[in-house]
Amino acid sequence: MVMVAVKAFPMNIQSLFGGQNGQNAPVIVDIIMDQQPCKSFKDGMPIKGSIIVHSAAKNRINVTGINIELIGKLEVSSCKNPLSINFCYVNKSLPIIDSNNYPFTFKSPELPYNTYNGVRAKVRYYLKCTVTKDSTPIYKELDILVLNTAQGPPIPVRPLNIDVGIEDCLHIDVRLDRNAINLNGQILGHVHFLVVKLVVKHMEINILRTEIVGGILSDQSSAEGQLTHETTPVFRYELMDGTPGKGEIVPIRMNLRNVPVGPTEINVANNFSVRYFLSVVIVDESDRRYFKKQEVWFYRSEQTPEVTETAFEIPEGCLHCDP
C-alpha cells in the first residue's frame, strides 16, 4: 500500500509503506522543509529540512541507510531527440542516529535557473530521499520552487520603438519607455497616430513566448536550422476600439503582476531558451490583421521600479500584412 499526501507549507510529503498482506505495520516517511520567509528559493539560499521515519504502530524502525539528493533538471520532451540533463546535483548521506528525525541542510546550493513548466521543456528542482530498511530502498521526491531575482537586466536599457506603416494608409508610432521590463512593474508607453486613412476595427498588443530547444542559441545555429521554436501567445491587451483621429495619442499601461510570464532565459543547460516578444496587431473593417513584433527582455527584481518619463526617437520600420 502506498499513500501520498502533500500538506500546506512547511512543505511536507508523506508516504506509507506496508508489508505484504498487512503483516507488518506501515512505515511512514516524511520530508518536511523548515519554515522559510517565502515559499520559494533563490540561488545560494540554504535549503533545510528533516526526514522523519516512523511506524504507524510505533515500532522501532531498522533503518540501515538514509540519503538525500538535491537535483536540478532540464527535461525536453517535445523534440526529435528528447533530453534529460542534470545541471544541479548534490548528494548527502545522513548519519544513522537513535532517532526518527534526520535533519539535512544544503548550505549554499547553486540554483542558476528559474523553475519553468512550458510546452516543450521543463526546468525542475526536487529533493529525492532514499531510505533503506531491511535492505529494501524507499524512494520519495519533493519538488521545490526556484524564483531567482536580479539587480537589473543583463542588457543595456533603452527606449523601445515599434514604427508601424501601411503604405500611405496608416502610420503609427508605438513607444515604450524601455526594452527591459521588471516583472514586478508595468509596460508603459503610448501610441501616436500620425497618418490615419484606414478604418480600424480595433488594436491590441500581444505578449508572445517563444521556446527554443535543441542547442545553444546563436545566430549561426539558428541559420543552420538546428533549433526548434515554439511560439505561444500568453497575454492579450486590447488597446482601443474604432478608428482614431490623426494626431491622437493613446497611453499604454500594462501591469505585469497578474500576467503569466516569467524571466527571459538564454541557454539553460546549453539546450533551452525562452524569449518574449510584443506584437502590435491592427484589425481593419474587413478583419484583415496587420502586425509587427519586437523582442523585450523580462527580468524579476525584488523592488518595484519607479515610473519615469523618457524621450524617444522614431526609427524606420514597416508592417507585415496577414491577408
TrEMBL record:
InterPro entries: Arrestin-like_C, Ig_E-set, Vps26-related. It comes from the Eukaryota. One of its GO terms (biological process) is intracellular protein transport. Belongs to the VPS26 family. This is Vacuolar protein sorting-associated protein 26. It comes from Gregarina niphandrodes.
